[in-house]
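Inverse folding, one chain.
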């Protein structure tokens, strides 16, 4: 089981470098056993593509890095679309 710091470092290197191209980022918020909670910010908060990013990029990267993770949940309040990269 990887620590929060290890998961965050992996996200910095492999995911946030890509999200940064859209002014976004993801941070690990907490972990409860096999469940990791993340929070998106910048261009990702409120973005119409946030669910896709969570499922196809963030969850995939975390599960590959730490196979003990079964669930990744986004706890971001996406109602605020002020800085969203893609607005609906």
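Residues assigned per position:
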């Amino acid at each position: 089981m990887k620590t929060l710091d290890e998961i965050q470092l992996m996200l910095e290197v492999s995911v946030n470098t890509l999200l940064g191209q859209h002014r976004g980022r993801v941070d690990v918020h907490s972990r409860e056993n096999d469940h990791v909670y993340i929070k998106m910010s910048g261009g990702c908060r409120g973005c119409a593509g946030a669910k896709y990013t969570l499922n196809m990029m963030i969850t995939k990267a975390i599960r590959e890095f730490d196979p003990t993770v079964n669930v990744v949940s986004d706890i971001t309040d996406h109602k605020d679309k002020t800085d969203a990269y893609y607005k609906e």
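The beta strands are 24-32, 35-42, 71-74. The chain has three helices and three strands.
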